[in-house]
Amino acid sequence: MPEAPDIPRPSQLWKRLSPERKMQAAEAFWQDDNAAAEQAEAIVLIAQRIKFRTTSVRALPREKKARHLVSLGAVSEIIAARLLVAYHLRHQRAMMATFLDALGITHEDGLIADEEMQAPAADRLRAAAESIAASYPPEDVTLYLSTLMWQDPETWAGLADVPQLSQPA
């Protein structure tokens, strides 16, 4: 596997998010059916922080768990990565779809359909990044491209040099 890209880690990206965006990500995180392991880890962290039993934290309403998660400040890389993915799947599907359309990659509502996808050429990635940069806020584009890089640095390595990746998230 290639070296990790020279971009902020998921936990650093998480820390940079606005409070509103963190709350959106946290709410999406608790609604994510594929995040059971990360949710269990978050429940333990929250329970330790607020001095509750884990069963009591698990029973809290989703909104309260989201607020507690946001108030933790620091989270593990695994939780941060899942928070970012959940945020994008819940709130940025249109941008994801636009990006994949620009690359000519088959997808279902922003989710790549082909599990054996080949890494797109750097020039195509640059053009796709420019296409979403023309339609979406710079911080959303940077966050999305950074998240892609961390999810799969091999496939998305060509994004390393796009200017949209170096803007603050």
Note poorly predicted spans: none
Distance linking N and C termini: 26 Å
Main β-sheet, spatial strand arrangement: 1-2
Q: Work out the radius of gyration.
A: 17 Å
* SSE pattern: HHHHHHHEEHH
State the shape: elongated
Number of separate helices: 9
Helical proportion, percent range: 55-70%
- Strands, total number: 2
Please indicate the count of domains.
2
Mean pLDDT across all amino acids: 92
Strand content: under 5%
Structural class label: mainly alpha
Largest sheet: 2 strands, antiparallel
Quick tags:
2 domains, mainly alpha, two-stranded antiparallel ribbon, 60% helix, 169 residues, 9 helices
What would you say this structure looks like, in words?
With 169 residues, this protein is mainly α. The chain has 2 domains: 10-87, no CATH class; 93-160, no CATH class. The protein has 9 helices and 2 strands, in the order H-H-H-H-H-H-H-E-E-H-H. It has helices at 10-16, 19-31, 36-50, 54-58, 62-71, 77-91, 93-103, 122-133, 138-151, and strands at 107-108, 111-112. A two-stranded antiparallel sheet has the order 1-2. Helix 1 (10-16) crosses helix 6 (77-91), helix 2 (19-31) crosses helix 6 and helix 7 packs antiparallel against helix 8. The longest helix has 15 residues, at 36-50. It starts with 9 loop residues before the first helix and ends in an 18-residue tail after the last helix.
